[in-house]
Amino acid sequence: WIILKRHSERFDLIPGEWNSIENEVLERLRSAYRFSWNLPYTREVLASCSHLMVCSDRDVYPNFTLDIDLSADVGGRVVTTLLRLARKVYREYQRALWDEKELDELNEKESEMVDKVTRVFEARRRRVGREEALAKAEKKMVELRSNQFVGEEVVEAAMDRLEELRYELQEAKGAEAIAASEVEAPDARESSFHMYGDVGILLVDSRWNRVAPDGTQTLTQPLISNDQMIRFEGMIENNNSPRALIVCTEFPLVEMDKRETTNVRCGGEHNLTDFHSVNSTFALNPVVQKKLLDMIFDWKKRERFRQVLLMSGGLCHGLDTVIKIRNTDWAIQQLTTGPLTDRPEEVRCQRTGSILDGYFEYEHDALRNQRNYGEALISAKYGETSTINAQLVGQYFARVGCICGPVIGKVTDDSVIILIEVDNEAPITCLVNDCLSGAILRSTKLLTARKPHAFVFDGLESDRHYTVRFEGFVNADDRMGSFTTRKREGVGENFSLNLVFMSGERGKVGGGGISSLTEEKKSDDGTPSSIWSILGGASQHPWSGVDAVIHLGGQVDINPACAAAVVLLARAEREEENSHAQKLLLDEALDHLREAYRTSWSLPGTREALARGSHLMLRGALDFGSLLLGRRGEQSVTISGKAKRRLRSLVQQVYREYQRQLWDPDGVADAPMLGCSSSDPDEQCNNGEWHFHQWGGVGVFCMDVKDTKLWKSRSGGKESDMPLISDEQWRCFSDAMSVENLTQLVICCEVPFVSDSIGDARYKATDPQHSHLVEHWPYHGSELLRLLNGLFEWRQGQGGRAEVILICGGISVGVDSLLKHSSLGAEIRQIITGPAAAEPESDLWAERTGVLDGSISYEHGPVTLVQNCVLARYTAGSGEGAVSVQSNILTVGDLLSEVEGERGLKRWPGYLAQLHSDKERNAGDVTMIQSGGSEEEVEEQRFALNLILLEKVLEREDIQRGLKSVFGRLHAGDSKSFDNPIYFSRAAIKVLTRYYYNSPAALRDVALPPNLYILEVVARMWESGTIGLSEKPSRPTSGKKKTKEELKEEWDAKQGGGEKYNVPLALMGADQFAKFACEVFKNALVVRMNLLLKARSDRMKM
Q1: Which positions ≥6 away from 646 have C-beta within 8 Å?
Q2: 691, 677 in Cβ contact below 8 A?
Q3: What is the pLDDT averaged over residues 410-423?
Q4: Per-residue DSSP letter, 522
Q5: Distance of CA 1012 to CAs 280, 294, 520, 546, 987, Å?
Q6: Of 1025, 1041, 1032, 918, nearest in space to 977 by CA
Q7: Rg of the chain taking only CA atoms, in angstroms
Q8: By three-state DSSP, how is residue 457 classified?
Q9: Chain-centre distance of CA 669, in angstroms?
Q10: What is the DSSP-derived secondary structure letter of residue 464?
Q11: Among the ranges given (634-648, 654-668, 758-772, 964-978), the one the predictor scored with the smallest mean pLDDT
Q12: Average pLDDT rounded to a whole number, residues 206-214
């Protein structure tokens, strides 16, 4: 450009010199190809297989057909020359790859044309020179005639020269016209068609039809001329027609409709991109778009065996698209490959839509944040239907799926641990979204295949609800989660803590685990009727009041996986040590053990519960399996000592990957954790899995009674004589009890602390049917008494204001027991929780009362013989720092009433109410901040502008249509519980969130992601008439729920009486739901702004 421009401004060019200038420019352009095609790996790829290329704008100049600087009016001769030379180089390097017949002839004709065009150019320069000389001469002539001192002879001589110049100008014009008439334009089309057997490849040129052979741009021409369309039809439909067709274009044939392209890609409301930069897309050329789509579909319809694949580039992200003719089964796949080396960009198009007045429909599946390419396997055999299997291949894998998780681990007042597992190596992004402020925290990790990984987020706001979603795998819409951070101690309201304890043990003495009863069940009125489902539903709601769920063993049934792993380990023993074959067998055995977790944690109800709230786990017998514990049964097999040690190591590894990572994640700097076992391989005592957690004055110590049995039993003595608790665990337990300000202590264990007396337990253990009792506390009487005496003494040492609760599982029934110390006059409760989902035992097989020694006695209460869990509620006591506790065994019905009833655990912070008032803010009156301004002022202005934009965006037809389709995915409101705002919001959040993240970018640019809190609040406001049209309708005073028929009668009566109010949730239609969703998006913005104002007010008070 610079070379041509500077030389074009010279006045001393001699004939023929312009050709040498063009040759210099050609060399510069060729050097670009030489550099790019000689880069490492690029050169090897280009040299190793067949290549066909479609010209892109960037092969010449970015958007060269529409850039204003490259127009003939602005750039003139320089532009036309530059484009002509760029096309010449394109042909030399790209067209030459496929054109072996016409290219030489085309180049010869173009050389002749260039010579003639050069003569035209030189003739034009002479004509321009004569015009300038004549103009100057005429000006001087006027000056001569006005000068009275100039003689007649001088004037006559000047007139003669003026006439000569006029003659020379006419001669130059004639020469220019003659030279221009001799220019004959060769064919400028660059499209082509290629046959590979029965597969046809059509390369469609949408650039050069708008550039004349001499380089002049003709923007009035269509992307593809009618002559080219006729040529295309002749190419693909003839006596040797292909059976499979690949159509390649620069830009995707279908990406967005014309209106969305204008709004999103061409500036529109947000001024993101200049209009001209995308005017070469098919969306803004609908006539050409329809002709090409009609031609392709018509070709496919003529023969059933025909298949078509559309391939394109032009975008910086990958799209796998299905294009359909509306209301038919005719569909074509389109792959849009993203950048191969460039940086990927955000996907801004909506996932589904229609084009050309709805005649064609499309659905995109985006490959985000990855460089990628496309591959296709094509089969086109006579007598068979052709097949095309095409996919995008990213940097790691095109179709990554989540196979376990998310599981929400430990949640504090400012941090969370989130566990996830994918089936292929890929970069996965975890997004944590504050439901009030809309702030989003992102963390991206390269996850290895089929191994769980933990995302750790620090610096969260206290007492906030967050939603969790992922990017990078295909089922991300179904793998969302949520949690609520704890309120920071000493700030705001009184202390409150609610812990749920549950066990996975099932109805078999000494056994346990997950059974088919974990499946999600519903009661007649649509409410959940299993503990897993209730916990999942309750924890999903913001500030649900369930601070943590502690699992007391039996999280998985590892026995079937161990049986499969043993076979592989036996085969591994026969392989050479550390060989590749042995490693493969060990990896396969490890994957079988992981599969036990994937299966158990993906069951309906279980998966939803684990993805919400906070979960901590201690390992139980079933998490190890009968084989490692030496129990005989159906799965008893013979295994060598070496294989058993390997199995033990693998089982422990899997436990740490899935369960321990929920509170001690890998990859986080190891700091000493009070009361917790070490997993450091360099330490000697690193096999235990006890841990301690503290919430204010409440501490929970989770004991491990399998450490010594599995890792320290080879000391020559009987396994039954091995202690339950190692010296290291006793030391950690002592450290935990010494924590300052600890007034409430919960000791958790997978087996009961007290079921039988010490003598009864040792006697029963001699019976093979009760041999499992050697793993229980009463069999190890000295350790049990050491524990209990220490707890009684600790409680007494706290001045009588401390409480101790023993909570355990392991016997598949629920029992509330009381332990008494006669000498100290103190009591300790023991609560045994039965199975949360599996079949309970028929009774407690132990004496109801008994003594442990001369001071300690026990009494078992009534036995709960249905599925149950334990809820411990801690609240602030009467004294300073005092905490009181209320704990109970809860059945399914009890748990439902506790967590979701009128007096449930939900405890929304008091400041939330004031966040939903927009304070009569007039969004139309925006005072622009010219310069400076505080952060709050800038944010408030941004809010007002966003609110204006949001209201406009929500009025768009495509947005309204999308929101109505969300209602359709809610089964048109057909649910017996939809008149309840809680259940309505719970049902709507998933589909509305999915719509939001796949909606047009115009909505995502100004609206915050929907969340359950906003949905529930707006649903309550909708029912009460606070928003919308209405006055509050009368509600029944009784607690009886109205049927849909009763609600409809009330609605009709109100309308007949002239009153107006919102359509009830149970009667909401698609139009009302769209209006409701708009209120949700608006309310989220109002909450965000009011939260900012509240924060500013709080800072001013400090």
Answers
A1: 569, 572, 586, 589
A2: yes
A3: 96
A4: B
A5: 42, 44, 21, 16, 10
A6: 1041
A7: 39
A8: strand
A9: 27
A10: -
A11: 964-978
A12: 77
Give the neighbor-by-neighbor strand order of the sheet with 481-484.
440-447, 426-434, 465-471, 481-484
Name the one residue in this structure whose structure tokens are 């684990």: 610
CB 1066 within 8 A of CB 894: no
Which candidate, 703, 724, 697, places its Cα nearest to that of 712?
724
Query: Where do runs of H (alpha helix) occur along 257-329?
Result: 258-260, 286-302
Cα Dmax for the chain:
149
Question: What's at 956, amino acid-wise?
Answer: R
Neighbours of 112 (CB within 10 A): 14
Using an 8 Å Cβ cutoff, are 85 and 237 in contact? no
Find residue 864's DSSP bridge partners.
Answer: 814
Cα angle: 460, vertex 465, 471; to 5 degrees: 75
**Cβ–Cβ < 8 Å for 977, 900:** no
pTM for the full model? 0.78
Neighbours of 72 (CB within 10 A): 17
- The C-alpha atoms of residue 321 and residue 331 are separated, in whole angstroms, by 10
What is the residue-wise DSSP string for 738-782?
T-TT--EEEEEESS-S-SS-HHHHHHHTTSGGGGGGGGSTTTSHH
- Whether the CB-CB separation of 1007 and 950 falls below 8 Å is answered with yes
- Return the axis-axis angle of helices 981-997 and 1012-1024, rounded to nearest 10°: 130
State which amino acid sits at residue 14: I
Q: Where are the domains of the chain?
A: 2-181, 243-394, 494-900, 916-1101
Q: Token pair for residue 573?
A: 């023993």
What is the reported pLDDT for 360? 95
558 alpha-carbon distance from chain centroid: 31
Residue 637 has what DSSP assignment?
Answer: -
Report whether 775 contacts 709 (CB < 8 A).
yes
Pair type for strands 868-876 and 496-502: antiparallel
The H-or-E segment that residue 482 falls in is strand 481-484
User: What single-letter amino acid sits at 930?
Assistant: Q
Sign of CA dihedral 584, 587, 593, 598: negative
Which residues partner with 411 through β-bridges?
416
Question: Is residue 1053 pLDDT above 70, yes or no?
Answer: no
Q: What is the DSSP string of 333-373?
A: EEEE---SSSPP----S-SEEEETTTTEEEEEEEE-S--EE
N-terminal to C-terminal alpha carbon distance within the chain: 63
Cα–Cα distance between 338 and 312 in angstroms, integer?
A: 9
State the amino acid at position 380 in one-letter form: A
Rounded CA gap, 17 and 40, in Å? 38
Give per-residue pLDDT as tens, 997-1037.
888 888 888 899 999 999 999 998 888 877 765 444 444 44
Write out pLDDT tens, residues 815-849.
999 999 999 889 999 999 988 887 887 778 888 99
For 448, phi and psi rounded to 5 degrees? -80, 160
Residue 852 CA to residue 781 CA, distance in Å, equals: 8
Q: Which two tokens stand for residue 1003?
A: 């909505």
- Using CA atoms, how far residue 404 sits from 76, 349, 554, in Å, is 63, 29, 18
910 φ/ψ sector (left φ>0, alpha ψ -120 to 50, else beta): alpha
Residue matched to tokens 């006539």: 287
Nearest to 1003 by CA among 895, 1085, 937, 1081: 1081
Question: How far, in Å, CA of 63 to CA of 910, rounded?
Answer: 56
DSSP assigned state of 618: E
Strand partners, 612: 482
Q: How far apart are CA 52 and CA 202, in angstroms?
A: 10
The domain 494-900 is placed in CATH, from the list 3.90.320, 2.60.40, 3.30.70, 3.60.21, at 3.60.21
Under a CB-based contact definition with an 8 Å cutoff, are residues 616 and 692 in contact?
no
Distance CA 622, CA 645 (A): 17
Which residues, listed in sequence order, are joined to residue 319 by a DSSP beta bridge? Answer: 336, 366
Distance CA(758)–CA(746), nearest Å, equals 23
